[in-house]
Amino acid sequence: MKAVGLYKYLPIDNPESLLDVDIDKPSPGKRDLLVKVKAISVNPVDTKVRSPKNALEKEPKILGWDVSGIVEETGSGVSMFKAGDEIYYAGSIGRPGGNSEFHLVDERIAAHKPKTFSFEEAAAMPLTSLTAWEGLFERLGIATKKDENEGRSILIIGAAGGVGSIALQLASWAGLTVVGTASRAETEVWAKKHGADYTISHYADFLPQLNKIGLSEVDYIFCLNSTDQHWERMMEAIAPQGKICSIVETKTPLNISLLQQKSVTFVMEFMFTRSLFETKDMKRQHEILTEMAHMFDEGILKTTLTETLQPIHAETMRDAHSKLESGKTIGKVVVSRNE
């Protein structure tokens, strides 16, 4: 079957960074779904995995961890899906990605796609939706009932990106006062359109900007951009006994002693943890995506798709990676099979 993969880890402007390849069509294991891929989207994990390094692959490495498609075949132990079902999912970083004609995914981390969404709209959402939901409601422990969040506030750093765009919507739905960071006029507009009550710049200290909009501190911080760069600013802005969650790995050691005086909780969120380690609660991702599909269909949440490219070929995927690496994308870029 046709796929897009790599043998060498190269800069995206190198034509060999992503290649059109032929690989064997996979067969589903006991709990697997064999999916006919209709659309995929690109996330920072794709560019990080593909980024230049001294390594060579004997077999093509396939990227792509946001997929919407149609179930072609099911494994012998599958109980939640059948052939013909339209689904969406983020998959597992421990398995080949979805930039291919057909793809395998464990049923416990997939869900029926929103009925009102196109495949392209659906493909934009799984990875970022799971990251945002887990970060907000599981890692930070924010309540999902508005009355329990009255008077509470959150700062979302990197609000106009893929995760930020859905995190804004979820935080607003939960009843928090939502502050998002944005660096350009268009990202400020986007952030406010998607749930931010206020926007501030992530190029300046947070606390003085929060003071200007009437906030002396924030109860929660969701860091989606450069944990290292914003570490001390977050310590200044967080409330005593507040909570901070980051999805961005650090490049330098951090002074965690800064957490102590305010008794601040700091946690990390990695959306692939459940699938990578096959945790006992792995099915929770199926449940989250199912709940969010209902919210999308009811109009409570909306897709963050901003641009669709086609078809799923190497040249198109290089274009998508290049757009993401520019740091200027808003929302999500999706690549459609165009059949």
TrEMBL record:
It comes from the Bacteria. Residues 13-335 form the Enoyl reductase (ER) domain. It holds the Pfam family ADH_zinc_N_2. InterPro entries: ADH-like_N, ADH_Zn_typ-1, ER, GroES-like_sf, NAD(P)-bd_dom_sf, Zinc-ADH_QOR/CCCR. SUPFAM superfamilies: GroES-like (SSF50129), NAD(P)-binding Rossmann-fold domains (SSF51735). Keywords: Metal-binding, NADP, Oxidoreductase, Zinc. GO terms for molecular function: oxidoreductase activity; zinc ion binding. Belongs to the zinc-containing alcohol dehydrogenase family. Quinone oxidoreductase subfamily. NCBIfam families: adh_fam_1. This is Zinc-type alcohol dehydrogenase-like protein.
